[in-house]
């Protein structure tokens, strides 16, 4: 019997070795690039106009990331379509860590429920980095409106032409929170869409609308300045920034709790090394004393960089708001 020739085996090993070398050569720059990250300016996209919580928080975060990672972080506002324009831009961006998203909970959990043909999937198109913070919405009216408290607002709403308040809203999540107020307390809303919380505040000040169920950072200064009235907050506990404003639960509706949150996300496919670096930096920033104090001043509670918990929160909130939308007979538009 003839022994099998070693030549085919050696040839196969040479081919395999060449293939492995090619793979290593092509992979090595990616690893080096991830380790060097960030080596050029990073863009943080916000899906709303300047002045709202996401914009304010993104700018605070950008300054801290720039300080920590020694690179420029730029905030870019891409407002419109309940933040879907900005979110979709990031979902389709190169997953290299140089285009990030600061998204409202609405952009990730209520747009899928209330918007037809949403061009991105919150659970499939993003990598979670950090839950930046949670905060209440504030039931807000112009100082000129003849109501002194939440109970009077409920009664006032029943005297309007169609039994509804013209309510300014910048995002679908605020619509659904307002609808939980409606089902709980009986006040009805006619929702009018704006491109950002700052623009809703302008509408309130100008008398275009009668109410706004708005993020606390967007209204605090106007409330403290006496130009707007804060009648209630939507969280289970009072806001440290607005300690005199009662919770809806306190006002005779026990168990009511509807917080809003903001998150830092990256496009799906971003490398594990880049994500780890961003999560570590964000986690440290959210514990930084100066950052915590600034967030508390805005009525926000800092979050964390537990990406797995954030993924679960997105999924559970989608389930919660789906039920609210169904009960309110809100259809995708």
Explained architecture:
Residues 1-34 form the signal peptide. InterPro entries: BUG, Bug_dom1, TAT_signal. This is Tripartite tricarboxylate transporter substrate binding protein. Belongs to the UPF0065 (bug) family. The structure is a single chain. By secondary structure, the protein is α/β, with parallel strands linked by helices. The protein folds into two domains: 40-135 and 260-327, Bordetella uptake gene, domain 1 (D-Maltodextrin-Binding Protein, domain 2, 3-Layer(aba) Sandwich), CATH 3.40.190; 137-233, Periplasmic binding protein-like II (D-Maltodextrin-Binding Protein, domain 2). The chain has twelve helices and eleven strands. A six-stranded mixed β-sheet has the order 2-1-3-10-4-11, sandwiched between helices. α7 (172-185) links the parallel β6 (165-169) and β7. The termini are far apart. The model has no long low-confidence stretch (mean pLDDT 91).
Brief descriptors of the model:
12 helices, elongated, 44% helix, Bug_dom1, D-Maltodextrin-Binding Protein, domain 2, alpha/beta, 333 residues, five-stranded mixed sheet
What's the topology here?
Elements: H1 7-36, E1 42-46, H2 53-69, E2 73-77, H3 84-91, E3 99-104, H4 105-109, H5 111-114, E4 126-135, E5 137-142, H6 150-157, E6 165-169, H7 172-185, E7 189-193, H8 197-205, E8 211-215, H9 216-224, E9 228-233, E10 260-267, H10 272-285, H11 289-297, E11 301-304, H12 307-327
Parallel strand pairs: 1-2, 1-3, 6-7, 6-8
Antiparallel strand pairs: 3-10, 4-10, 4-11, 5-8, 5-9
InterPro entries: BUG, Bug_dom1, TAT_signal
Protein name: Tripartite tricarboxylate transporter substrate binding protein
Keywords: Signal
